[in-house]
Design goal:
The chain is α+β, with helices and mostly antiparallel strands. It folds into four domains: 79 residues; 104 residues, PAS domain (Beta-Lactamase), CATH 3.30.450; 69 residues, Signal transduction histidine kinase, dimerisation/phosphotransfer (DHp) domain (Helix Hairpins); 154 residues, Heat Shock Protein 90, CATH 3.30.565. Helix content is 55%, strand content 19%. Helix 1 packs antiparallel against helix 2, helix 7 runs antiparallel to helix 8 and helix 10 packs antiparallel against helix 11.
């Protein structure tokens, strides 16, 4: 018997003896008037002996049961773990206990293996899903259009920076929050369309619309597309909203339409004149040489006007598309302006306008395309002569600003000036001041072409000053050649 079991036995015997002895003694003391001392002694001895026998029997029974269970467990373990049939034979009783246990262990082992495989498969799927999610998020964030993804409950799943900036919400903090709250008043129509599509996705799973949304105080036009994401069971799993800002596209489309309209209008006028005078000549309306010569000159002038218009249109188009061949060289700006003065002098004399030369005699060179700079300067001088009444004056000056290393060309006149409300539109294609249309013919392309040449090709800047009714100053600034 081990030390622990011996101690347990002693404690059990002592507890039984003390309890029974104390009880028996108390009982004898209460009845001592008819029980003697020998009777008490014999009683105690019998009680202690009986208690000892019972304790020893219980301990022996416990030890036998323990040994039996240990033996049975060892046999069961050897039999269950043996895979080659080398386990020792066991009794029918043990087999009845062990066989179901082995079957259960085998079943649990199979399930554990299957769960392990399933766990690995789920880990792989989770990694793939996470990688796909990150990839889709990167793609969505790289789109310039506003993109919003909503789940089937109307909560935000993800949004790109363009959408967050448009509707002023935090794309990260807004995940799993109702899209209605995030869009706010600005996106009330979008939120209503999303809600309606969630309700009627079985009937309509795609919707397009056009919204006017205010961005930084300016109303912009957005083309909206809503598309439902349907799972394999034909249930709604989400909605994708894409908003494309088409404001600039609409403006370009309008500009193209206006351009075609203006070109058609400008071409129609000289063509009509050429056609009319040609018909007069064909019909023999010009009976004498003087009349025929007059008709010929009109046709020639209108043809030249038509040619200039086409050249201007082509030049503007080439510059804007980057197809113009630019030949930059060191050229004298003084010589270019002198040539412009010579070419413009006959027109000035015809209108009795004084053309004053204030070009600096100091040699000033620029790195530029000579023909383009000549065209820009001639446009400014021609406009000054056109819109200056008879008896007026036009000054052409050239100065060098040594501190900034720039050359400044200015054309100042005593003409009609530009109204304040027209100043911002002066350089638009085909724009002409309404009050000045009766003073001179023009296509409205001269100033636009000049700005394209100076600012677009030569990286200079334009100068515009005007006082309505008292005159204007147009010019440009170019960097001095190194």
């Amino acid at each position: 018997m081990r030390a622990t079991e011996s101690r347990m036995l002693c404690l059990i015997i002592a507890a039984i003896v003390i309890t029974v002895g104390a009880t028996y003694t108390l009982w004898l003391m209460e009845h001592s008037h008819y029980v003697n001392v020998w009777s008490i002694g014999r009683g105690l001895i019998l009680v202690v002996g009986a208690s000892t026998c019972v304790a020893l029997g219980l301990l022996h029974l416990r030890r036998d049961m323990r040994l039996h269970m240990l033996h049975l467990c060892r046999m069961s373990r050897d039999w269950v773990l043996a895979s080659d049939g080398s386990a020792p034979p066991m009794s029918a009783e043990a087999r009845q206990l062990v066989v179901p246990l082995k079957e259960k262990i085998d079943e649990l082992s199979t399930k554990a293996d299957a769960l392990q495989v399933q766990k690995k498969s789920l880990k792989i799927q989770l990694r793939l899903a996470d990688a796909q999610r990150r990839q889709s998020q990167i793609m969505i964030h790289g789109i310039s259009d506003a993109v919003i993804v909503i789940d089937e409950y109307g909560d935000l799943l993800q949004a790109n920076p363009a959408a967050a900036a448009l509707f002023k919400f935090d794309a990260v903090a807004g995940v799993k929050k109702p899209i209605v709250d995030l869009l706010g008043k600005k996106g009330a129509r979008l939120a209503a369309d999303i809600s309606d599509l969630r309700t009627n996705y079985a009937r309509v799973n795609r919707r397009t619309a056009e919204y006017a949304i205010e961005v930084e105080g300016v109303s912009r036009t957005f083309a909206m597309t809503l598309a439902c994401v349907i799972d394999d069971t034909d249930k709604l799993s989400g909605i994708v909203a894409v908003l494309h800002d088409r404001t600039r596209e609409d403006e370009i489309s309008k500009m193209k339409t206006d351009f075609v309209s203006h070109v058609s209008h400008e071409l129609r006028t000289p063509l009509s004149s050429i056609k009319a005078y040609a018909e007069l000549l064909v019909d023999g309306e010009a009976a004498d040489d003087k009349t025929r010569s007059e008709f010929y000159h009109i046709i020639q002038a209108e043809a030249e006007r038509l040619s200039r218009l086409i050249d201007n249109i082509l030049n503007v188009s080439r510059i804007e598309s980057g197809m113009t061949k630019v030949s930059k060289k060191h050229v004298s700006l003084n010589e270019i302006l002198k040539q412009v003065l010579e070419v413009a002098m006959p027109s000035a004399r015809e209108k009795n306008i004084s053309l004053v030369d204030q070009v600096s005699p100091i040699f000033c060179s620029v790195d530029a395309d000579r023909d383009m700079i000549y065209q820009a300067a001639l446009n400014l001088v021609s406009n000054a002569i056109k819109y200056t009444p008879s008896g007026g004056t036009v000054w052409i000056s050239l100065e060098s600003a040594d501190a900034s290393g720039e050359l400044v060309v200015q054309v100042r006149d005593t003409g009609v000036g530009v109204p304040p409300d027209a100043m911002e539109r002066l350089f638009e294609k085909f724009f002409r001041v309404e009050q000045h249309k009766s003073m001179a013919n023009g296509s409205g392309l001269g100033l636009n072409l000049t700005r394209q040449i100076i600012e677009g090709v030569h990286k200079g800047r334009m100068i515009v000053k005007s006082e309505y009714g008292r005159g204007s100053t147009f010019g440009f600034v170019l960097p001095m050649a190194a």
